[in-house]
Write a structure and sequence with these properties.
It contains six helices and 13 strands. The chain has a five-stranded mixed beta sheet with strand order 3-2-1-5-8, with no helix packed on it. The protein has a five-stranded mixed beta sheet with strand order 4-10-9-6-7, with helices on one face. A hairpin with a 4-residue loop joins strand 6 and strand 7. Helix 1 runs antiparallel to helix 2 and helix 4 crosses helix 6. The longest helix is centred in the first third of the chain and has 32 residues. It is elongated and about 95 Å long. The two termini are 49 Å apart. The structure holds dinuclear copper ion (CUA).
Amino acid sequence: MTGASTYSGLVDETFWLILGSSVIMLLGITVTMIYFIIKYRRSQNPNPAQIEGSKRLEVLWTVLPTILVMIMFYYGWAGFKVMRDTPDDAMEVTVIARKWSWTFDYGNNVYSSELYVPTGKPISLKLRSDDVIHSFFVPDFRLKEDCMPGRENHAWFETTRDGEFTIFCAEYCGDQHSQMLSSVVSIPEADFAVWLEEARVPLTAEQIMKIKGCVACHTTDGTKGIGPSYQGMWGRTEIVKTDGELREIVVDEEYIKRSLLDPMADIVEGYDPVMPPMAGQITDEEMETLIEYFKTLK
Ligand code: CUA
């Protein structure tokens, strides 16, 4: 399968070079070994001969492998350099990973749960994580880069054709690791401009919950997930653990906002403290939208 990024060919070249030379060496060594086993078998050589060293051979098996690994190094380095040097004119998108979803931040309050990009334009990625280590992996682009809590990583790509390309998380990050999927959607530049324009409108509660990753753990139909369901939550009396003490609260606006911004403050009894804080990632307006929506989930 051919890749869909401008540098995928470089990665494939290096891969086939290393795989090819490994297969040739494996075959060569195995055949020579079998040949020697037969040729120097005990029945034909009852008295072992004393063999002195050979300078020519010593030099040969030092120099040849050195040249071979230097060739591998050259291809590896040349490809790596291209992948690490982001072009200056690249469009910047911030990738936010969390348990267990992806958010793509285009700036100017544009967020998406799929990575829309214009085909044939370089895209610069700033990668970070809200909680544990995740890894942004797009096999079609031959691109894999870790998302780390507490530091920013970078990567870039440029697609060579329109299409939808799967994004995986390639770092084991807990229960729903295998479900941490999304797509890069590469579309013509004109269509991308339209998409970006439409993405600027205020989000609905459903969109917010998808983009912020809420739906990975919370349902809206009463089903128990990693976290409590939103259904019937509004106005309910709940037992929560605060600073190790159980207490009773009523789910109101203040409680919901605190639970979004600082989820560790009150943990609903029977659930694990696993939610990443949304402080700095959700606007007041978005919280209001969510609260209005929660009120409708009777
Ligand atoms: Cu995120 Cu695995």
